[in-house]
Amino acid sequence: MKSIIRFFAFAVLFSIGQKGYSQDPNFQVYLSFGQSNMEGNAKIEPQDTVGIDDRFQVLEAVDCPEIGRKMGNWYKAVPPLCRCTTGLTPTDYFGKTMTANLPEYIKIGIINVAVGGCKIELFDKDKSEDYTATAPDWMKGMIKQYNGNPYQRLVDMARIAQKKGVIKGILVHQGESNTGDTLWTKKLKIVYDNLIKDLNLDPKKVPLLSGETVNEDQNGKCASMNKIIATLPQTIPNSYVISSSGCKAASDNLHFTADGYRELGKRYAQKMLSLLGYKFYNGKEFFRIHAPIGFDQLNSDVPAGKIESISYESQTVGAVRKATVYTPPGFDKKKKYPVLYLLHGIGGDEKEWLNGGSPQIILDNLYAEGKIEPMIVVMPNGRAMKDDSASGNIMSPDKIQAFAVFEKDLLHDLIPFIEKKYPIFKDREHRAIAGLSMGGGQSLNFGLGNLDKFAWVGAFSAAPNTKMPEELLPNPQEAKKKLKLLWISCGDDDGLIGNSRRTHDYLFKNDVPHIYYIEPGVHDFKVWKNGLYMFSQFLFKTVDQSTFPEYTILGEAAQTNIRNSKYPRILPDNKVVFKIKAPEASRLQIDLGRKYDMTRDESGLWTVTTDVINKGFNYYSLIIDGVAVADPASESFYGMGRIASGIEIPNKEGDFYDLKMVSHGNIVIKKYFSKVTNSWREIYVYTPPDYENGAEKFPVLYLLHGGGEDQRGWTAQGKVNLILDNLIAQKKAVPMIVVMLDGNIPGGGGLKGFNENVLKAFENELLTAVIPFAESNFRTAAGTKNRALAGLSMGGLQALYTGIKNTDMFSYLGVFSSGWWADNPALSDPQYEFMKNNATKINSNIRQLWISMGGREDIAFNNCKIMIGKFDQMGIKYKYSEYSGGHSWPVWRHDLFMFAPLLFQ
């Protein structure tokens, strides 16, 4: 009996000792240990001692009277951060980066215990004494400063730190002295496990970040150790390797320079910020874009809400039905609360969220952090039928139909019951609906279909029960006025992602503000829990819709990607993320007009996020060690005079070239022998819908590409077939044939060698080879009135020259992003002289001379403006169109979209 009393007395005293202080959850403490690169081997420079936020502190691990610090006390983190005379460390810029990019209410604390030259065995508490006994004298002096036991000093300091803050992570840099030791990861795990146990930490919430030794790209003497370090996550699940690639090395090739430590420290911080859920985005305020480690883990120190099961009478079903209700911590019946209706999937019921998603834990933790508004959460059974159990054939037609019937049950039975039983605000601004899978489809259907009832709508991995967008939201303008938040999220490997994508595409094109959140994952609770974590933080608050595009982890794979290639990926704000595996490369860049340097991780994966990229089609190249090549992950196109990659950026104004449910024409590729060039050549021909099924003859548009491209351009890059399919289906353009030829005449020299002889060669090819071939092989309507000629850039000059010289052949001319060169009078002056002398004939014969430009950023802008000024002086009639976008395919697609309806009317 006495032993039992003593046990309880000890337990009480231990509890008092553990809980007798108040931890600040916003004071994040990080332990760091290792050898010389963690203690700091580079000289501290003036820039390292300034600009340190008061929120960044160090807990001194040794007495340092020379700098006025005592062991066990907190100080502003002015270096040195290890011992009294050590140098700059990765922890300096880890802390600087963290405080610079976390909310101002968060503080960062560092405890740094490191010993130069030591093996990892020094920090194994069971082997430390034996290791120290055989250590060299110079190392023993450093160990002595930690009272002969660096591990215990780290633990003792950590316990002091726990009185004020919460340990959020462990940083290590060690391995040089263990190079080649294949057991190193297991030895480090022993240290990590001991720290977790001795400090009563949760390994799921406290990650280990381990930095590489000096990389082989810096001729690191211990670079081979990085292959062993790379395997650490296989031994410690919650561990992460920090790449040292590109971090500058000191002359000994063992240590880093000050610049190297600064960069390495930033990388530690970038990874930790990511694990905390924050988006690391240069030049922007940092904010959370996913749940942090441990967000769904029970924390006995935070107040808990209450879960109860309720029953209500359903007039819709004719039965008593059940629901699960969560009330927040400190629930007060005298106060009023908003409500979130949280729906389950096809195989679940009112308990599914509790069984798989731990919503009460997620919400309790968010309340403790002050991240969400107090709310009641109702989790009903969304299968509105008398036998609403998730048993038998859950896919049977009656059970599927019951999910649709639930809309009536929800609106007419459940909501009135909840509002009668609980103290609830009854207006739409205080009512939200969200769900997973089948429940995600219900949330979209019911929420968007009843905007007078719900102002907040969320769908996590919406299932195929989601209505088609036009039915789901027939009046986008109403949604824009009434919705506070529309959230759509899904895992990137979820087979149902197409449901979310089609809804997003419709919302995007109709300017309906929403968050389209794509994250790594499949169709499971890992994704849905993160969806609830993120979605709930927006509810019943003022939201800034301008930030919506920032909320995603992955964005969407580009439609120009090869098959299942996941990268490049397009973020909602039209930035692009590239990831390329190239372990043997020393430098990678992405060239999108501007060159972007990529960064390499420890596995040889190179990554970069671009600035905002122009909407529509863009050429790009991958530059590997200075050589420009096509990205094997993307479709390739002939452009810029070579094969290059292309990426299609979403364009809400690009509805006219979307693939739609209309009748489609065909693209035919034909070979012909040209007597002009004495060679076989090729044309691409678009024939309108149903061309093969009749005898009708059609007018012809001869359509020319630009410099550095060929006959494939208008089909592959220009989407000519889709543009005309849609125009013809809408009866905005007459059915026509489009002939696209190669404007690169052998010996022509391209634009640099452009002269009248080159233009004459093209004219000869078109008139004597291409047109006769087209008219003898396709059902073309005869006569000038049934021929049009248009081209872009170089092709614009070719169309202008040939069309003006042959107004008896063509009645319509289109000149896109072109114009006679102002700085080449030898070429231009004769053309202007010819037009001046033939102005009456040109105006009489040409029914439509249509000139377009991509705005001031178009490289042909000045030439075009000068040219049309001269046309005005001559009295040449024309129409001018300007569409912002520069000298690019999005502009030329729009040009064709505007020009084609004018033809053959």
TrEMBL record:
Residues 27-273 form the Sialate O-acetylesterase domain. One of its GO terms (molecular function) is hydrolase activity. Gene3D superfamilies: alpha/beta hydrolase, Immunoglobulins, SGNH hydrolase. The keyword Hydrolase applies. The keyword Hydrolase applies. It holds the Pfam family Esterase. Keywords: Hydrolase. This is Alpha/beta hydrolase-fold protein. It comes from Flavobacterium azizsancarii.
